[in-house]
Write a structure and sequence with these properties.
By secondary structure, this protein is of the alpha+beta class. The protein has 13 helices and 26 strands. About 45% of the residues are buried.
Amino acid sequence: MGTTQTGNLMPRMFLSLLLLFGLCHRAYSQTVAPGSSGLTLHEGTKLVVVDVVVTDRSNQPVHGLGVSDFTLLENNDRQRIRNFEEHRGAAAGSVEAKALPPMPPGYFSNYTPVPAGSAVNVLLLDTLNTPVTDQIYLKDQIRKFLKEATPGAPIAIFGLTTHLTLLQSFTADPELLRAAINKKNSSFSVLLANSVTGGPTEKFSDDYAEFAASTAMGPSAASDSSHTMMTLRGGETQTDSNQLVLRAKYTLDAINQIARYLAGMPGRKNLMWFSGAFPIDILADSAKTNEGGEFESLESEFRDTTNLLTRGQVAMYPIDARGGVVSTVGDVSQSGAVYDAEPTRFAQDQLKFHQSLASDNATMRRMALETGGKAFLAENNLAGAVKQVVDLGSNYYTLAYSPSNPHWNGDYRKLQVNLERQGLTLAYRRGYYADDPDAPARGGRGNTAAAQTVPVGPSDPMRLAMMRGAPDSSQIALKIRVLPVSDKPEGKLAKGNTLSSVSRTKGPYRDYSVDLAANPHEVQLMKGADGNYRGYLQFVTYVYDQDGRLVNRVEDVMRANFTPALYAHVIATGLPFHQEVSVPMKGEYYVRVGMHDLGSNRVGAVEVPVSTVKDLAPLTASARVGDAGMLPK
């Protein structure tokens, strides 16, 4: 359901630091005063959080507004604002994230430090949906922005091909950001058909030209070959449709992964998505006109993804990397043979181009509207667009309220924010789905082993979280320890391990102990009538080779049933689990550890290069104590 928080509102950054460094000796207090309002919220309160960017006629941020200036409506019913806070962009160079203390060898976390109280910015360079020529222009524009910008709010940079890559973690250092932009990650996707640029695809033009040459086709023969031409065009249409669905799926998966990566960070996040186009119009009305279940599935994933973004206070800013788009139908880059033989095709392709452009814009505008961002379309000054997002996205107001409608039934609820002052523009998300955060998650736990495939249905969060090289999911804060069990090579796999069906790896192996402690406040543990606390949890460890192939895995599911005393211990020290995984001794490998709360569908994941732990001293027998208390403080 939108950005809904339950229970206690102690700042996540503070809690995560307590957990990660063994300082969390007590449970949450029953009340807490969030923000600057001094308001006390009791445990169990369900809040909807709405960030609002207010600008004047000159598109400059407006400061100094108070809670009494705002009116907030949900489905036309006025809501009482229970928490209010203004955020102002920090002065250049004053925003720094406090670094974590050094962790002992073999210890790792999915926690990413960011400055408290400051908005952070994320650049997503989408080469999957952007022609190469536009990629070059885009990078030049971002270099221009970095050259002119003074160090300020942290920026992270991601790249998207058929998978998501973190090019640079959060930093305000322009040199590091420029180095990430200069990385040779540009590519042309084979899935990128000419639906992005207009006109017939090269494949159809080539097929048509080859057919015409082989049959010595002339004007009269062309009329007798309409069936063959329709067959070629039908094949092209089906291929284009399949490519569009795949591109849309990869794109939504990537945004989903970014949302889970940002989930554990406090405050507002501005996600600037530079793309040549969203590959398909997935608006509900348009989906109904398409046959098959692919579009309905994409619409469902679109809903899930926008929910993840709004829960994590992530505002989406789609920026068309093509700038002002002009149809290339019939220009010198296209084959003219098809139009000579079929004159009506020119008008059809022109219409197709404009329809495609309109659907691209509609989907991108919708994603911006539902997350409180803004779409930049037909904008040639991309550097200016980035500056505008960074400036405006760092100056905003946070409004939180407990809905007067207590029924969490999954319905869509419209939001409306009004101001007493006239002449101001407000940007905020326009609604949310009222999904009950305490209800069991939709769907099942899926097939996490199929980590490198694209499923037909909505994405299983663990499939995305456990992909090799994916950003660490932070919905559940994790601290893990990975250490060798012994120096001895093993001829067979550790208990519970399963080799991948495509793996050709053979022993000898070396066994590693994987110990995990999770933030219990980010896991759904429900109190039963008997006073015990129950949860349904999945723990997974994957081993990948250097080419990203899954080699080995171990998976466990735990039905937690904690007595009050054990629950109090878990709250104080973290929720523990232990696994052992076998890694081939020859070669370069990566261990990826994940946890999935099957009740809330939240996930956490951490990836560890085996090279960083293989030379560490093996665990002593006394240190391998199993699940409880295995992480020394």
